[in-house]
């Protein structure tokens, strides 16, 4: 009797244990469910975020398009843009200077790589003197202005470098800066370089006014993605912006009105050499050709 009672008690305990076990299992199942739910929420959140990022980048990535890639050798590529009213008013004042259409144009066939390299040598010769504080430097062979830090010096007035440029250098320069179609060469015709240490801000809106010049030409003297990184030229347009990737000897021209607002991206490494050649319709803003005798 006693033994059977004992057994019963033991069985009862076992049953109790079983009940307890199934209780624990229930709790564990609940927490498993919770965990699954959490995982589901987490994975969904991740997917949603990933989608958002993709959407963001495709939307934003689409807003910038290459107009001229460094890898292309372009015989000529143009785009007609609508002249800004201010620009039309401005050039209307000068007879014969009226553009049939406002334009931007890129060509790799007008200046040879050899010519660009000769110009680059002239540019480097002067610019290396001004390279005191890094950043961007400008060398204007017409006035002799060379940027040095925040200031300008006149290289033709400094004794040590007075005869830095030879007649040959000026010939090289003049050969590339003759004004076409009765236009007149004007100020802001200069070499410039942008170093990676340069603050992009100061170069973002270089040209917005056209008080003295009506056509801008840029001649690139170094290669994007080879000699330097970053530093693409970007036209600011309504639907999407268009980039010109600098290429040695690449020439780009555009009317200097608001229709061609642009900026230059920050240079992240290397040095970006280019030259601006500006033309005007207004004789009063003409600049004379530089030459060795004059200085
Ligand atoms: C073009 O660039 C400008 C200047 O960075 C920017 O404000 C503008 O949003 C860009 N336009 C487009 C369509 O992305």
Q: How far apart are the termini?
A: 131 Å
Integer-rounded radius of gyration = 34 Å
**Ranges with pLDDT <50 over ≥5 residues?**
200-210
Shape: elongated
Roughly what percent helix? 25-40%
Helix run count: 5
Number of strands: 14
Percentage beta strand: 25-35%
Tell me about the largest β-sheet.
8 strands, antiparallel
Oligomeric form: single chain
Helix and strand composition category: alpha+beta
Q: Topology as H/E string?
A: HEEHEHEEEHEHEEEEEEE
Residue-averaged pLDDT: 75
Bound small molecules, by name, code or SMILES, are: 2-acetamido-2-deoxy-beta-D-glucopyranose
Task: Describe the 3D structure.
This protein is 34% helix and 26% strand. The chain has helices at 2-61, 85-92, 113-130, 167-176, 201-204, and strands spanning 64-68, 77-81, 102-107, 136-139, 145-148, 151-154, 184-195, 215-220, 228-230, 233-235, 241-244, 251-255, 262-264, 267-280. With 295 residues, the protein is α+β, with helices and mostly antiparallel strands. A hairpin with a 2-residue loop joins strand 5 (145-148) and strand 6 (151-154). The longest helix is centred in the N-terminal third of the chain and has 60 residues, at 2-61. Strands 2, 3, 4, 7, 8, 9, 12 and 14 form an 8-stranded antiparallel β-sheet that branches. The model is unreliable at 200-210 (pLDDT under 50). The protein contains 5 helices and 14 strands. The termini are far apart. Residues 63, 236, 240-241, 263 line the site of 2-acetamido-2-deoxy-beta-D-glucopyranose (NAG).
